[in-house]
Amino acid sequence: MKLRTYIVEDNATIRENLIGTLEELAEVEAVGIAETEDEGKEWLTSHTSQWDLAIVDLFLRQGSGLGVLAACRNRLSAQKMVVLSNYATPDVRMRCAQLGVDAVFDKSNEIEALVDYCIEHSNSTQRAAASSAATN
């Protein structure tokens, strides 16, 4: 079972490279993308059962990733929100934590850590599904 991942990133090159890397290395399936805050909020909040992980950039063509994160605060407990940004400063990390973000990764030097995070989240999602199937 692949980790259903929604990506909010307005840079097409970064987005395509990220999707390729995660699909190859981390059992991730990209279920959709958004380039703006409004697109990301609309899809994530209206398709609540169709994603396991959202990867959100903070600086978007329209709006901010912070708005996307705030809109998803009441997501299901198994759904994870992570930030992938060039601006992963201590202040940004603290603001993301206040919005309930599960992890923050720096685009310049933490892509490998993001891949590892996706692999771990995929494994825990599979374990939860297996144990749920065993108890039903």
UniProtKB/TrEMBL annotation:
Gene Ontology biological process terms from the UniProt entry: phosphorelay signal transduction system
Annotated TM spans: none
Record keywords, A-Z: Phosphoprotein
Cited SUPFAM superfamilies: CheY-like
Keyword rRNA-binding: no
Any matching Pfam family: Response_reg
SMART domains: REC (SM00448)
PANTHER family named in the record: RESPONSE REGULATORY DOMAIN-CONTAINING PROTEIN (PTHR44591:SF3), STRESS RESPONSE REGULATOR PROTEIN 1 (PTHR44591)
Protein name: CheY-like chemotaxis protein
